[in-house]
Write a structure and sequence with these properties.
Elements lengths: L2 H22 L2 H4 L3 E8 L4 E3 H13 L3 E14 L2 E16 L2 E18 L2 E18 L10 H4 L7 H9 L14 H14 L9
Parallel strand pairs: 1-6
Antiparallel strand pairs: 1-2, 3-4, 4-5, 5-6
Length: 203
C-alpha cells in the first residue's frame, strides 16, 4: 500500500477508536486519540480535549447516555496534516418531563488531524449538525414539547438541544449545520489548516 492510503487508514482507525472508547468509558485509551493541545466542540461542551475527557467521564459515571454511530469517511491529507469528515449520528437518551426519550442527530464529525512523532491524532473536532428528531422510548407515551424552548435552537440540533437543556446542560447556539455561515467558516478553517495555518490551542 502507498503511504497516502496507509495514512488514511490510520486516521480512520483513530476516528473509530474515538467512538468505541468514548462510548464504552475506556478513558485511558480515549485520551490517546487526541494531541495534548487538542480542542473539542459540541452542543454541551467547548474546550480543551483534556477537559472534555473529564466531562465525558463524569457524565458517564452519573448515567448520562450519549452514544455514537459512524458512517463513511472522507480524508484530505497535506503532508503531516489532514482534514477528515465522517458521517455520524449522536444518540442521547434522557427523561423529558417524565417521559424517556431518544434524541437522534445526524451529521458529520469535522476533524483536524496532525501527524506528530509518527502518530496521527485529533487536533480539533467540530461536529456538523444536519438534522435531528426526538422519539419517546415507549411508542405509546405522549410528549408535549415547549414550543418556545424548542424554537430557541437551530434546526440542525433543535431536538437534541431541547433534550440537553431539559437535562441540565447549557447548549451553545450558532454551531455548524448543513448550510450557513458557521459551516462555511469551518470549511475554510479546514482549507487553512491544510495550507499550514498555525494552531493556537483553540479555534
Amino acid at each position: 500500500m502507498d503511504t497516502g492510503t496507509l495514512d488514511k487508514l490510520a486516521i480512520r482507525e483513530v476516528i473509530e477508536d474515538w467512538v468505541v472508547w468514548s462510548d464504552s468509558g475506556d478513558w485511558e485509551r480515549f485520551a490517546t486519540v487526541w494531541h495534548d493541545d487538542a480542542w473539542m466542540s459540541a452542543t454541551w461542551f467547548q474546550g480543551p480535549a483534556t477537559d472534555f475527557i473529564a466531562a465525558r467521564k463524569a457524565g458517564f459515571e452519573r448515567g448520562v447516555s450519549i452514544i455514537h454511530f459512524l458512517g463513511g469517511t472522507s480524508v484530505e491529507i497535506a503532508g503531516a496534516r489532514a482534514v477528515a469528515q465522517t458521517k455520524m449520528t449522536i444518540n442521547q437518551r434522557a427523561e423529558v418531563d417524565g417521559v424517556a426519550v431518544d434524541a437522534v442527530c445526524t451529521g458529520r464529525f469535522f476533524d483536524l488531524f496532525e501527524k506528530r512523532d509518527d502518530r496521527w491524532a485529533v487536533v480539533r473536532r467540530q461536529p456538523i449538525y444536519e438534522k435531528d428528531r426526538l422519539d419517546p422510548v415507549d411508542p405509546a407515551a405522549t410528549l408535549e414539547l415547549d414550543a418556545e424552548l424548542l424554537g430557541r435552537f437551530p434546526e440542525g440540533y433543535r431536538h437534541l438541544g431541547y433534550l440537553q437543556t431539559r437535562a441540565g446542560f447549557e447548549v451553545k447556539l450558532g454551531l455548524p449545520e448543513l448550510r450557513g455561515r458557521a459551516v462555511e467558516q469551518l470549511y475554510q478553517d479546514g482549507v487553512n489548516w491544510l495550507a499550514g495555518a498555525p494552531w493556537r490551542g483553540k479555534p
